[in-house]
# Entry
Amino acid sequence: MKKIATAVMVLFVGMTFAQEPGKTKERKTPEERAQHKTDKMEEHLGLTADQKEMIYDINLEAAKKHVAKREMAKEERKAKHEEMKAEREKIEAAILDVLDDDQDAKFLQMKEERKAKHEERKAKKKACRKECSKNKTEE
# Structure
């Protein structure tokens, strides 16, 4: 019975250290991904040396294209974010032009309160995620 309890404890401790929250897994290079995929195919399909070389080249090209698409999507998101930010600033400037000084102050205060509320929700969400990941590692 002691051996089983010890084995279970070792298993849980190992799982806890293996899944440390907050640490992200480093992405493999396209070459590493192509090599891994090619090795798996060789293992399951029994490829010849020539086939393995040709398939590695195909996998490498695909992995490089995948990385390029991911980077392009990242840049597009960044550009869209900047565009939306500029639009919000333009709208805010137009609103401030219409309001008088007292209303300007109230409007800016509303904006700050909205921002503080957003930050509060964001912090709460982050705490919840941290708690959830902590619970998962305990399971």
Remarks:
- The CA atoms of residues 129 and 135 lie 10 Å apart.
- The chain is about 85% helix and 0% strand.
- Residues 100-139 form one domain.
